[in-house]
Amino acid sequence: MIVLENFRRQQNTFIVRIFFLLTTITVIAYTEILERLDFVVYDEILHFIDSTNDSNIVIVTIDEKSLSALGSWPWSRGVHAELINRLTSIGNKVVALDLLFSELQSTDAHADLLLAKAIATHGNVILPVAPISNNNSGALYLTAPHPIFRQHAVLGHVDIELDSDGVARRVFLYAGIDAPAWPALALVLADPSTAGHSLQINDNKKGDDRLKHWVRAEETLIPYTGKLNSFRHVSYSDVLFNDAKLADLKGKTVIVGMTAAGMGTRFATPLSADNRQSMTGVEWHANVYVMLQNNHAIHPLPEIWVTILSFLWVAIILTGVCWTKNNFTVPLLAFFMVAGLFLVYQSLKIYHVWIPPSAALLGTLAIYPLWNWRRVNQFIRAFLITQLRSSTALEAIQDGVIITDAHDHVVYINRGAEKILRTEFNQIKGKVLQKILHLYTNHNHRPEDRSVKKLLAPGLECPGVLECGLKTTLNTERTVRITRNQLHDEHKALIGSVIAITDITDTVELTQRIAHHEDYDALTKLPNRTKLMTQFDQLIQVAQITNKTITIFFITLDNFKKINDAMGHQAGDKLLRMVSERLNESVNQDDIVARWGGDEFILLSVYLTDKDIATGMAQKLLEVIRSRFEIDSLEVYVSVSIGISFYPENGLTSDTILERARTAMYRVKRDGGNCFNFYSLESTLMWTRDRLELEKELRAAITNHELQVLFQPIVHAETHHIARMEALVRWPHSARGFLSPSEFIPLAENVGLIDQLGELVLRTSCLASYKLLKLGYSVNVSVNVSPRQLLNKNFLQTILNALHDSGLPPRLLILEITESAIVNDMERVGNILTKIRELDILIALDDFGTGYSSLTLLRELPIDIIKIDKSFVRTLDQNQNDLTIVQAIIGLGINLGLLVVAEGVETARQARILLQHHCYYQQGYYFSRPIPYQALLELINKKR
């Protein structure tokens, strides 16, 4: 009886264990507790399934080669417009740009219009949209291309879902805010019928108070092509400049995106373990496109079906074992494990269906101890405690992981945590968590302080996540994302916690660097040249009202090249950063220190009102920079050359004053450096060996026709056709670089070369205008005339010869003169201009409004055109005084029957204001920079 009772008790216990096992497997399968293990199995099986590549797709990469050819990122929108136009020229049917043009380009609005036009002309350009969360308000909004770009574009979302282990395995074909309205970018590329042209986009990024969610639909797993970089890559610059490379793209599907190191988004994929590198976003889109094109999408089985199949699998094995009454041996266990994996493999390969097997496999494993529970019970009990800690660390192996006991003492950290904290496990083992994690918030709001304390407090009730700063044991600071989860045993008693640390310092710094790239120098963090010019013009506006003096220091390092040659460019960069820091520390709080370029710096000050005070500041700067620098444990000594100029004493425009400060600096350099000098007229007339060498080179350049004549269009702003063009000479010097007229015209005047130079420009300009006339384009050409040219007794004959030899009608020639060419001998100049005007040649008065006798010149001389100086145009949309002056000049010209041209138009707003006040002819970077003749012809053809 006792034996029978024991047998029944064992039977009842066995049935309870079976019930518990099946229940547990059901719960595990439905709740996806073993999701990480399923990921590992999926990744391994994927290696055995061939997924062919598609030779029809080409990735146009923004790589290091393109950055070297086109300059640092971001590029002008005009570059992207040119790429799209070239693809249009070969009949490209569709192109996807993994680039988000959410804002207009503040420095070049014309480039934005070119890009919008290129998109409209192509007709099938796909642009991305993406969800963005406002960290302050918690609102969710959609970041999309600016309306001028998206109105003719096709839109697709680029939301990429990362699994819990940080690996991108899946894609949601549709997603959106509160409803899955947007197709994925690759889906639009593969199936244009899914395009979301008409979907409404809220451009208010502040969001509203209504709670919003990012909703996804149609989840599929991606069968990657087998290895990274398996698609054909073509460099962005090759597409722009290599016609053969462009021709190879005919008939191809093109995706454009970033692959350069440190740029763009990269993801870990199942291929990363083999290739040891992340996948770029553009290649990820290519994989999704190939999957959709070949109908190889892998569909994950819904949780309920996974649960049912896992339950049935374990139940069938249990039934078979009970029915045969055989011992559940290790070989039999291995057979069922392999059989289960084989069925999963076949389902994935043949039917493209993924069945997560971890729950079923765990159930299969559990059958063994179920039959042999007495032998393994003790072993499992000891094993579970150790395995719990080890498996938890493995789950977060890509980040830093810290494991504590129930009292928050550190019991384990992985290598990632050692690297982030800059310490070793044996140095912090057993210490309290709060003493090794020195966290701080980036803001001083109390709720965030409480969040840090709450996260580090023992007995955390629910998982906590926080982005904050971390100070390492070496006192370096990092930006991290901290995730903390508590560990409990089978009785729900707290046994410790797991802290995962993700270092996001590089991501945060890259975001800040891109945000400040347009206005600040990446190396020294000082304002760059563009930002400086804006600040300088603002100071001039204030100085015009307050009558203050602005002092300009042009500072350059002496013999900086020796540092780079002796110690390398990294040492040179360190020195530039140290110099910028010392300059900042030496000036007043409101002074402006900027990096002009290379080893040149600019200091603007409104506190140094006279030369004596400016001298004291210059001497202070010399002494500060002469002090010892320590770079890589070496003592380095450098000096500087400083040129000083004043507003308004040395000029009325920022360009003029800076150029004169630079002239004074060069005089110091020629004299040996390590000193300062004030600008004076004599400093521009210094004869030096370098000046003699430059004169010789200029003579050779004129003789050998090495000077380049560019043309800047003068546009009728109402009709947008090119009515006139101004000829501008440049000197592409082989050693000194691209020299502007201000760097060699004064020399040409001083050494008697201006007549030869002027005749060369005049003949080239007349010939260019005649070529356009023969092509059916009547475009007046405007040529600048220097005072020396105008007063030359042979100047009139030079004009006649140029017109005769080129065939250009005199009515198409305009001669531009400045007040300085007239005021010294107005009677003689008046006679010359009258004779020129009798030839039917037009006369234009340049830089009108900046001199003192402009109205007298209009009364006494045969002037046809007045050109408003760019110093008034540049700030007319910001400064009411400048706008009033411009209105007065336009009204004066209209009343006198003169044609008015505005120079220096750089924005659409400036062009619109001028047009509203009846200034129809405009010139400036908004319409075009000075360009060669061939480029001008192409621009005229395009506008026609």
UniProtKB/TrEMBL annotation:
Source domain of life: Bacteria
Pfam families: CHASE2 (PF05226), EAL (PF00563), GGDEF (PF00990), PAS_4 (PF08448)
Domain annotation EAL: ranges: 691-944
Segments crossing the lipid bilayer: 12-30, 304-323, 330-348, 354-371
Domain GGDEF per the UniProt entry, residue ranges: 548-681
CDD domains (alphabetical): EAL (cd01948), GGDEF (cd01949), PAS (cd00130)
Protein name: Diguanylate cyclase (GGDEF) domain-containing protein
Keywords for the protein's UniProt record, in alphabetical order: Membrane, Transmembrane, Transmembrane helix
NCBIfam families linked to this entry: GGDEF
Keyword check for Transmembrane: yes
Domain PAS stretches: 386-459
